[in-house]
Amino acid sequence: MCIGVHLRFVFRVHSRPFAVKAMREKAGKFLYDLSALVVCLIFLIPVLWALFSAFRHSRDLFVFPPTFDLHGFTLENFQAVFASGNIPRYALNSLIVAAFSSLLTVLASSMAGFALAKYKFPGRRLILFLILSVLLIPLQVLMVPVFLILKTFGWINQLIGIIVPPAATPTGTFMMRQYILGIPDEMIEAARMDGASDWRIYWHIILPLCAPISAALGIISFTWRWNDYLWPLIVVGNQDNFTLQLSLANLVGTNTVEWGTLLAYATLVLLPVLVIFLLFQRYFLKGSINASVKG
């Protein structure tokens, strides 16, 4: 009897620190989740306000304190957006530029990353250093020589002038290289022993295995090209080849700005990128994490 009481006492004494530790872990997790929620709300408030204001009259946007009456919702701002220009044409131009430029980015970066990760040749690290050193050069310095090259090719005022120049990026090459370093060399050697060429190894082994990082890089590149304003502004002068960003900037007048129409347009421009990220966020997170830890 005494032994049983003693054992229960010992069990309670030793289990108490574990219970306290578990409570502390739960409290810490709760505080962490709460802090993350607060930070998310801070970043989402401007987006939610813009989305809410897109359905209101322009005269109601500057009312203080702001009201959130749902009865004042209207679609006039969106009607004004489609009346401001050939929006379907601008959307198609943006989609063509973002999609093809992202595809070229994935292909060029994966090829360069494969060569830098799996081929042994003199100066490999120097080439990687030179590629990454491009990140140190301001974009404004590169614009003039790239523009002159496009003028020589006759690509000014054409969509191809927006698609090709930003396709090869140092960031994409580095991400692909880091990911491909984690692919076993034995797999490539086995394919070579079976008679596979380098191109076949790349197309049938490397590229399929790089699907997560390709999706991550594709989403990043698509977002960059979809939101790009400065380079299309320099290259394109013909309104038929305008992207959504150029058309959106035209809504800002010299003396007046129709804020309701502007916010409605910005909401429409935001939706495609948001949908693509939500659809591929699993691959985006997986690819980004793997690329950051491999190598």
Q: What is the gist of this entry?
A:
The chain is mostly helical.
Give the assembly state of these chains: single chain
Q: Report the total helices.
A: 13
Number of domains: 2
Q: Rounded to an integer, what's the Rg over CA atoms?
A: 27 Å
Give the integer mean of the pLDDT values: 82
Structural class comes to: mainly alpha
What are its keywords?
295 residues, mainly alpha
Polypeptide structure, described:
- With 295 residues, the protein is an all-alpha fold.
- The protein is built from 13 helices and no strands.
- Helix 3 packs across helix 7, helix 4 packs antiparallel against helix 7 and helix 7 runs parallel beside helix 13.
- It starts with a helix and ends with a helix.
- The model has no long low-confidence stretch (mean pLDDT 82).
How would the blueprint of this fold be written?
Blueprint: H1 2-53, H2 76-83, H3 87-118, H4 124-133, H5 139-153, H6 160-163, H7 170-180, H8 185-193, H9 198-209, H10 211-227, H11 230-235, H12 244-249, H13 259-293
